[in-house]
Specification:
Blueprint lengths: L12 H6 L8 E2 L6 H9 L5 E5 L25 H13 L4 E6 L9 H10 L3 E5 L7 H9 L3 E5 L5 H8 L4 H15 L9 E2 L1 E7 L7 H9 L4 E6 L6 H4 L7 H19 L16 H4 E4 L5 E2 L27 H6 L1 H7 L22 H10 L4 H5 L9
Parallel strand pairs: 1-6, 2-3, 2-9, 3-4, 4-5, 5-7, 7-8
Antiparallel strand pairs: 9-10
Length: 387
């Protein structure tokens, strides 16, 4: 196994001096962790977070959905199974549980019980929701349980948001739910640099001319902007062909957002990371658990769907047959956590490896679509970076 280059084993002081704490962009509490925490957790053999699917049922039918969820899918994970996984994650050191849903998590019949459990164990619940079910009472409950909330906002134009969501009238209901979260106090900043409310945006050709406007919408309201690139997996592969942005287009909007942040908000960040103003290092410290109990590094890194990773036709990394600790310690996931040692192309010797490993999920999705084996696809050069 290739050893990690000495330059990347610690964080050089001059790197910190370039981006002092006063200019670091705010994060969504419990959702992302900075490079020191990420590498520190990896090297201490502990988790910082898990991402947990709870149900595939959804009140929308988003055209880019990686899980292909929709209303007719009503299967939900029993709360006792969710509790067992959450407790095992806590035992591995996790500080937060990202309730990603797989569908719309707030319509899980035991949603509040799950959030209460996470809170009672001293971990931060992070809830991904389209906010269409958000009532004043639910917003107050989430605030009281120390939850962070990641809403959805792909466009400020009704026709675009409705098209991407697969349903009419969506934008108005999203704005209503968002308003209830704001009224409950989710945009009050009680700890500098840590927000409680975020908005997830899937960037593509339909909304690319709104990216700056949405960014300012978030920045002006103390909301964490989570800009993701349309990934060719799930429903997007067939329903949104040709709508993905090129790496040049992605890098162009990142550089423009960085200019806006430096000029108007006083923030500074590395423009090469997958998420603007927030690098994604979750492969180092997180596990993703599907509704079937299968474990992946992240949502689009669909190891469980790859025949090459099955044993006797069965994907072996499942929390219903093995403990989360056993899976965490498995050779495959150890390889994932140390992916910085195996990267190829320009990522291999990049001077920014201490804070960026590229988008592994995107590389994996594109690589496997091209017929590459899972290891080769996972370690491939980042396809979004123009450095």
């Amino acid at each position: 196994m290739q050893s990690i280059p000495p330059a990347f084993t610690s964080f050089a002081p001059d790197k910190d001096e370039e981006r002092p704490d006063s200019t670091r962009p705010p994060v969504l509490a419990g959702y992302t962790y900075d490079p020191r925490e990420a590498y520190g957790a990896r090297d201490a053999a502990r988790l910082l977070a898990i991402r947990l699917e709870t149900n595939r049922s959804c009140n929308l039918r988003c055209r880019y959905c990686y899980a292909e969820s929709e209303s007719k899918l009503d299967h939900a994970t029993p709360v006792d199974e969710l509790e067992r996984v959450v407790r095992q994650a806590q035992d591995l050191g996790a500080l937060s549980v990202v309730v990603i849903g797989g569908g719309e998590p707030t319509i899980h019949p035991r949603f509040r019980d799950l959030i209460s459990l996470i809170h009672s164990l001293g971990m931060v619940p992070v809830v991904f929701t389209n906010t269409m079910t958000m009532t004043a009472d639910l917003a107050s409950f989430l605030l009281a349980t120390n939850a962070s909330v990641m809403g959805k906002l792909d466009s400020l134009r009704p026709e675009i948001q409705d098209f991407l969501s697969g349903q009419n009238g969506v934008l108005a209901r999203i704005r209503q739910g968002l308003g209830r979260l704001i009224d409950a106090g989710f945009t009050r900043v009680e700890e500098p640099g840590r927000f409680r409310l975020g908005l997830s945006v899937v960037t593509n050709r339909l909304n690319q001319n709104e990216i700056e406007e949405i960014w300012r919408f978030c920045r002006d309201r103390s909301i964490f902007p989570n800009l993701e690139v349309l990934t060719p997996t799930g429903r997007a592969a067939t329903e949104l062909p040709g709508l993905g942005l090129t790496r040049e287009e992605v890098q162009a909007y990142k550089l423009r957002l960085l200019e806006i942040d430096r000029t108007d908000y006083g923030f500074d960040w590395l423009p090469h990371t997958p998420l603007p103003a927030s690098g994604c290092l979750q492969h180092l410290y997180s596990l993703y658990i599907t509704i079937e109990g299968n474990v992946r590094p992240c949502a689009p890194t669909k190891f469980d769907e790859n025949p090459a990773l099955r044993v006797n036709g069965v994907y072996p990394h499942n929390v219903r047959t093995r403990s989360l600790r056993e899976i965490y310690n498995d050779q495959l996931f150890d390889y994932v956590r140390h992916i910085d040692r195996h990267l190829e192309g320009k990522c291999r010797e990049c001077e920014h490896l201490c804070e960026c490993i590229g988008c592994r999920g995107y590389s994996y999705s594109v690589g496997t679509n091209e017929g590459k084996d899972p290891y080769t696809a996972l370690r491939g050069e980042c396809l979004q970076c123009l450095k």
